[in-house]
User: Which sequence fits this backbone?
C-alpha cells in the first residue's frame, strides 16, 4: 500500500493521522491554519479539523512553546511549528529552561509530550536566519530528544513516533528535501525512532549523516564507486540520543568514518561522534574520524551558501584524506 | 506614508549625540511617575482595621463569616511563622537559600483562598502562602531550597505547579493551561503569579497577548512588592502595572495587597470573570516585601529604613487583628491558641527539614526522560561502575 509522496506531504499525512487518532493532539504555529504553513506542511488540516485543533498563533515564538507547555500540562499533545530555524531562539529559553526540565523537576509526575517542528538547513537560497542548523544547541540539553528524517517514509513514521513520545522532541525537518518524493507505506511497522539505518552497505569507509546530508552522502558513495571505492552510508536519523552502537558496528567493519552535517563543525554533533567513536573503536580505526560541515562563521548570504555547505567535492576530499592514512 | 515622508525631511540624530545640540534635553534616565496617575487602591480594610464600603467589590465578600475571617487571620499568621522558621533554618545552614514572603501574606492568602479546588495555580518561587492555601505541606516547599530536589511536590495533587525560578516563564504555562481548560469546556480558572520585575519580561507580555487572543480563563496576579532585588518598580514601568492590561484588551485592577479582604474580593471577581468566559484579568496587588529578596540579598544597600517603617504601619496581619478585635469576632483565647499552633508548626517544619534525607546518588539520572535515553543509560552504568570501584578497594 505504499504511496509515493514528497517529504512535506508525508509530514502532512502523518499530522493528519495523529489528529484523527488522538483528540488531544493539537497543531500550533504562525500561519499553520488557512495558509497551511509557509511550506504548506499543514495544508488543509485546519479546514478538516477546525481552528481549535489547528491553531494559528500570534507571532511570538516563546509564547508558542510556553503555551504548548501549559497545554501539555493540561493533557494535550501539542505539535508546534517554528517557521524557520533562525526563529527558534526567542523560544530557546522556554525550550531549555522549562520544556526540557519539567519532567525531572517533578520527579516524573509531569510529562511534556510536546513536538517542536523546525524546518532547518540551507540550500534554498533564502535570506538571513532561514538556513541554519542549530541541532547541536538542543542536543546539548538533557531532557530533549532531537530527530531529523532524511526521506518521506521516515518523515511520516518518525513524526508519528515523536507525537506519541512522552518526552519533548525537537523535530528538525530538512527543508531542502521537502519536495523530494519517496515511498510511504502507512501500513508498515516502523523501526525504533532513535535507531540509525544503513542506507548503503560498504566496506571501505563509513559516511555518517542525518537529515539533508544523507542524500548528499549517497551521491558521494555513487561517485566514489566509480573510482572503485566501496562506501557505507549511515542515516543517523536521531541526534539525541545518538545510536553509537550502529556507528560502532559500521566502523568496526570499515575502519574509517567521515561525519557530514550542515551545522558548523566546531562543537557540532560530528565532534561528539568523533570523540565517542574514538573511545569505542580506538583499535579498529585506520584513520582519525573526519568531519565535513559548515564553518565557524555566520551562515553566509545565499550567493555564498554553496561554498559554505558540504558538497560532493568536499566530502569526497575528506574520503580521500581518510583513505590516505 | 505621511510619517515616513516627514521623517525623511527631518534630520535625525543618533542616540549618542550630545545632549543640548539636538534640541531635546535628557534630564533623567528613569521615567518618573506622572503626577495624577497614582490610582485609587481597592481597599476594604484600612490599615487601622476599619471596614470601608466599596460599591463594586463588597458583594464578593458579603457573606463572609467571623469564622472565615479568623481563618484568613490564622492562614496569615501560620504562613508568617513558617516563613520566619525557614529564614532561621537558612541562617543555621539547613537551607541553601530562602525567599521570604514577609509582608505579602494578605496578597497570597487573599488570592489563594479565592481559588477553587479545581482551579490551577502557577507560582513563582515565593508563593508559600498560596501553597498553604492549596494544601501543599509547607515542609515540601523546602526541599528545593535545601537542595534535595528541584521541586518537591506533585503539581497535580493540589493543582499547584512547581516553583518557577526563571522570571515570568510560568505566565505562559498558565495561559496554555487555561487554553486547555477552555478547550475541555471546564469552568475552572487558572491563576498565574508574578512580580513587578517580571512585568518587564517578554514572556509576560506574550502571555497577555495569547490570553487575550484566545480569551483564556486566566488571572494574572502581580504582587508588586516594590522591589525586584534592588530595582524599584520605576525601573520596570512608566505606568502603574495594572494599567498595562488595557493595551492588551482586558481589565486590570490595583488592590491594596496588604488588605486580605480586598484581595479576596478582587481575586474572586477576576476568577469569576474567567469562569464565566470573560477572559483574562490582571490584578496588581500593591504590597511590600519587608525582608530581603532572598537570604543572599542585602536591602540596606538600596533602600532606607523609613520606607519599611511606613509599610510596617500597613501590616496585613495587624490590620485584620484590629478588625477582629474591634468587631468582637475573635477573643483572647483564639489568639493564644493560634500562638501555640504557630510554635508547633515551626517545630514540625524544623524537624522535617533536618530529617530530609539526601537524595540517592542515582537520582542524578532519574526522570531526565520519560521514555529513557541511551546516553543517560550509558552514563548511569559508568557512574555505577565508578561507585562500585570503591567497594572493590575494600573502602567504605
Assistant:
Amino acid at each position: 500500500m505504499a504511496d509515493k509522496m514528497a517529504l512535506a506531504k508525508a509530514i502532512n499525512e502523518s499530522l493528519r493521522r495523529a489528529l484523527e487518532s488522538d483528540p488531544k493532539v493539537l497543531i500550533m504555529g504562525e500561519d499553520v491554519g488557512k495558509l497551511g504553513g509557509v511550506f504548506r506542511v499543514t495544508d488543509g488540516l485546519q479546514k478538516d479539523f477546525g481552528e481549535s485543533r489547528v491553531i494559528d498563533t500570534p507571532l511570538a515564538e516563546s509564547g508558542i512553546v510556553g503555551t504548548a507547555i501549559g497545554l501539555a500540562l493540561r493533557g494535550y499533545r501539542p505539535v508546534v511549528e517554528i517557521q524557520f530555524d533562525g526563529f527558534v531562539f526567542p523560544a530557546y529559553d522556554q525550550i531549555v529552561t522549562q520544556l526540557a526540565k519539567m519532567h525531572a523537576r517533578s520527579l516524573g509526575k509531569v510529562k511534556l509530550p510536546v513536538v517542536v517542528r523546525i524546518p532547518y538547513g540551507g540550500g534554498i537560497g533564502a535570506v538571513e536566519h532561514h538556513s541554519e542548523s542549530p541541532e547541536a544547541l538542543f542536543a546539548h540539553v538533557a531532557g530533549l530528544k532531537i530527530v531529523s528524517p532524511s526521506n518521506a517514509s521516515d518523515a511520516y513514521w518518525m513524526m508519528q513516533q515523536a507525537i506519541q513520545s512522552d518526552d519533548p522532541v525537537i523535530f528538525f525537518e530538512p527543508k531542502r528535501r521537502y519536495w523530494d518524493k519517496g515511498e510511504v507505506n502507512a501500513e508498515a511497522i516502523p523501526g525504533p525512532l532513535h535507531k540509525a539505518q544503513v542506507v548503503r552497505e560498504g566496506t571501505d569507509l563509513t559516511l555518517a549523516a542525518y537529515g539533508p546530508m544523507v542524500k548528499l552522502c549517497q551521491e558521494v558513495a555513487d561517485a566514489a564507486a566509480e573510482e572503485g571505492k566501496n562506501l557505507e552510508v549511515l542515516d543517523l536519523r536521531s541526534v539525541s540520543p545518538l545510536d553509537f552502537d550502529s556507528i560502532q558496528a559500521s566502523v568496526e567493519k570499515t575502519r574509517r568514518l567521515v561525519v557530514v552535517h550542515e551545522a558548523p563543525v566546531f562543537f557540532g554533533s560530528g565532534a561528539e561522534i568523533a570523540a565517542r567513536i574514538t573511545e569505542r573503536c580506538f583499535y579498529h580505526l585506520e584513520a582519525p574520524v573526519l568531519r565535513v560541515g559548515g564553518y565557524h562563521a555566520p551562515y553566509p548570504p545565499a550567493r555564498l551558501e554553496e561554498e559554505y555547505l558540504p558538497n560532493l567535492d568536499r566530502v569526497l576530499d575528506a574520503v580521500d584524506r581518510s583513505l590516505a592514512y | 506614508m505621511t510619517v515616513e515622508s516627514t521623517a525623511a525631511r527631518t534630520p535625525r540624530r543618533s542616540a549618542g549625540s550630545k545632549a543640548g545640540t539636538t534640541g531635546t534635553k535628557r534630564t533623567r534616565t528613569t521615567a518618573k511617575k506622572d503626577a495624577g496617575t497614582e490610582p485609587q487602591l481597592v481597599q476594604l480594610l484600612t490599615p487601622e482595621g476599619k471596614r470601608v464600603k466599596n460599591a463594586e467589590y463588597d458583594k464578593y465578600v458579603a457573606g463572609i463569616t467571623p469564622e472565615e475571617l479568623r481563618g484568613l487571620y490564622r492562614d496569615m499568621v501560620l504562613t508568617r511563622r513558617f516563613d520566619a522558621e525557614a529564614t532561621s533554618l537558612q541562617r543555621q545552614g539547613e537551607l541553601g537559600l530562602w525567599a521570604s514572603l514577609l509582608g505579602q501574606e494578605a496578597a497570597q492568602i487573599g488570592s489563594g483562598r479565592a481559588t477553587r479546588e479545581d482551579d490551577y495555580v502557577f507560582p513563582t518561587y515565593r508563593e508559600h502562602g498560596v501553597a498553604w492555601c492549596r494544601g501543599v505541606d509547607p515542609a515540601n516547599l523546602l526541599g528545593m531550597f535545601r537542595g534535595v530536589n528541584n521541586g518537591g511536590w506533585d503539581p497535580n495533587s493540589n493543582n499547584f505547579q512547581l516553583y518557577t525560578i526563571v522570571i515570568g516563564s510560568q505566565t505562559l504555562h498558565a495561559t496554555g493551561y487555561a487554553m486547555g481548560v477552555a478547550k475541555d469546556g471546564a469552568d475552572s480558572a487558572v491563576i498565574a503569579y508574578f512580580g513587578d520585575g517580571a512585568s518587564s519580561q517578554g514572556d509576560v507580555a506574550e502571555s497577555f497577548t495569547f490570553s487575550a487572543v484566545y480569551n483564556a480563563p486566566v488571572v494574572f496576579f502581580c504582587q508588586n512588592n516594590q522591589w525586584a532585588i534592588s530595582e524599584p518598580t520605576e525601573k520596570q514601568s512608566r505606568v502603574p502595572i495594572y494599567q498595562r492590561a488595557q493595551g492588551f484588551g482586558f481589565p486590570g485592577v490595583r488592590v491594596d495587597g496588604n488588605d486580605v479582604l480586598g484581595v479576596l474580593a478582587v481575586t474572586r471577581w477576576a476568577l469569576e470573570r474567567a469562569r464565566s468566559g470573560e477572559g483574562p484579568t490582571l490584578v496588581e496587588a500593591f504590597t511590600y516585601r519587608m525582608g530581603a529578596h532572598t537570604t543572599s540579598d542585602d536591602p540596606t544597600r538600596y533602600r532606607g529604613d523609613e520606607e519599611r517603617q511606613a509599610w510596617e504601619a500597613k501590616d496585613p496581619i495587624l490590620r485584620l487583628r484590629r478588625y477582629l478585635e474591634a468587631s468582637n469576632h475573635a477573643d483572647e483565647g483564639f489568639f493564644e491558641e493560634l500562638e501555640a499552633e504557630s510554635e508547633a508548626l515551626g517545630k514540625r517544619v524544623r524537624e522535617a527539614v533536618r530529617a530530609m534525607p539526601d537524595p540517592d546518588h542515582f537520582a542524578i539520572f532519574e526522570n531526565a526522560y520519560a521514555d529513557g535515553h541511551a546516553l543517560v543509560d550509558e552514563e548511569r552504568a559508568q557512574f555505577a561502575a565508578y561507585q562500585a570501584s570503591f567497594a572493590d578497594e575494600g573502602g567504605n
